[in-house]
């Protein structure tokens, strides 16, 4: 979904955010550097193009020690909450294995900040910290698409949305990669106007500012590189039916093709059979769950449509060169 301008935000959502000037970043170990810098750089550039110190930012860590990003670069905290005072908003910036770093100290800190009326946000896997602290109950929120399914089941009181970012009252949640850049551009637009936000995006050679209603997933035709409507629909059906895979006959029937025609199309455009393509989708999903969640191998086996752990392990080894148990250890 494309937008030519910033997405309008409801007045009740924008009101507490229009005056944000001091932005705090709570960086957890293994945080995503691209998500963190995408957010900070927008603030820096807004000051530059606006020729004024509209924004300042503070980097803090739970223990006051430097935090190492997932790319190995260490970032030192610039201050503490005690020294800098409460920011106008505090974003939790995290990355891989976030569950290992959201402990009682982090939860207590976030609850204390929330109790003082400070808006809270999370970027990349940072929203998990807000979820664990119970600070997103009753809110709309988003998380990275890899984590959407397991977290949706674990936190039924949160209304998850498959969007780049969600602003709901005094909570802001954002996915990873460069999505924080879009969130911050929208926040700059709320405070300084769309013209300034557009100037910032031009400085970064960003073609357009994505809005809160843009979806996380790249359209199927762009991802797989073909435009045949029937084939795109089959891939969509496969992606939507991982836990209970559809048979080749069911897939063909749903798109009004014969099985033979469907097989020819896959061979022509993707050089694989539909069965192999479907299996690869399920195995990639399994790898995401093994790497990014605490779900047991038995649970991963089931939710990815494998009826036997033995069958799952054999298929996984054939695809990735090692067993699911090894994948879990490598990601630890």
Automatic annotation (TrEMBL):
Family matches, as Pfam families: DJ-1_PfpI (PF01965), HTH_18 (PF12833)
Entry keyword annotation includes Transcription regulation: yes
Database matches in InterPro entries: Class_I_gatase-like (IPR029062), DJ-1/PfpI (IPR002818), Homeodomain-like_sf (IPR009057), HTH_AraC (IPR018060), HTH_AraC-typ_CS (IPR018062), INH-QAR (IPR052158)
GO molecular function: DNA-binding transcription factor activity; sequence-specific DNA binding
Domain HTH araC/xylS-type, residue spans: 232-330
Keywords: DNA-binding, Transcription, Transcription regulation
Domain of life according to the entry: Bacteria
SUPFAM superfamilies, A to Z: Class I glutamine amidotransferase-like, Homeodomain-like
TM helices/strands, residue ranges: none
Protein name (Swiss-Prot/TrEMBL): GlxA family transcriptional regulator
Native source species: Paraburkholderia ginsengisoli
Native organism taxonomy: Bacteria, Pseudomonadati, Pseudomonadota, Betaproteobacteria, Burkholderiales
């Amino acid at each position: 979904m494309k937008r030519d301008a910033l997405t309008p935000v409801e007045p009740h959502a924008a009101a507490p955010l229009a005056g944000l000037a001091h932005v705090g970043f709570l960086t957890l170990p293994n945080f995503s550097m691209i998500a963190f810098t995408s957010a900070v750089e927008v603030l820096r550039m807004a000051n530059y193009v606006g020729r004024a110190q509209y924004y300042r930012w503070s980097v803090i860590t739970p223990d006051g020690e430097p935090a190492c990003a997932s790319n190995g670069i260490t970032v030192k905290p610039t201050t503490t909450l005690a020294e800098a005072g409460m920011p106008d908003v505090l974003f939790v910036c995290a990355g891989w294995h976030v569950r290992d770093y959201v402990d009682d100290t982090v939860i207590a800190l976030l609850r204390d900040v929330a109790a003082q009326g400070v808006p809270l946000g999370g970027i990349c896997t940072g929203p998990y910290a807000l979820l664990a602290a119970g600070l997103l109950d009753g809110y709309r929120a988003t998380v990275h698409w890899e984590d959407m399914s397991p977290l949706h089941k674990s936190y039924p009181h949160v209304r998850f949305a498959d969007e780049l970012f969600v602003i709901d009252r005094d909570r802001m949640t954002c996915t990873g990669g460069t999505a924080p850049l879009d969130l911050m551009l929208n926040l700059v637009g709320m405070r300084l106007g769309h013209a300034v936000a557009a100037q910032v995006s031009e400085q970064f050679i960003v073609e357009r500012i994505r809005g809160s209603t843009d979806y996380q997933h790249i359209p199927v035709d762009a991802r797989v590189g073909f435009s045949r409507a029937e084939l795109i629909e089959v891939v969509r059906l496969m992606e939507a039916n991982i836990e209970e895979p559809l048979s080749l006959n069911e897939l063909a029937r749903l798109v009004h093709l014969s099985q033979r025609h469907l097989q020819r199309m896959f061979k022509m455009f993707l050089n694989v059979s539909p069965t192999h393509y479907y299996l690869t989708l399920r195995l990639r999903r399994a790898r995401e769950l093994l790497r990014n969640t605490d779900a047991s191998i038995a649970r991963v086996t089931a939710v990815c449509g494998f009826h036997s752990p033995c069958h799952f392990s054999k298929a996984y080894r054939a695809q990735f060169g090692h067993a699911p148990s090894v994948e879990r250890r490598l990601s630890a």
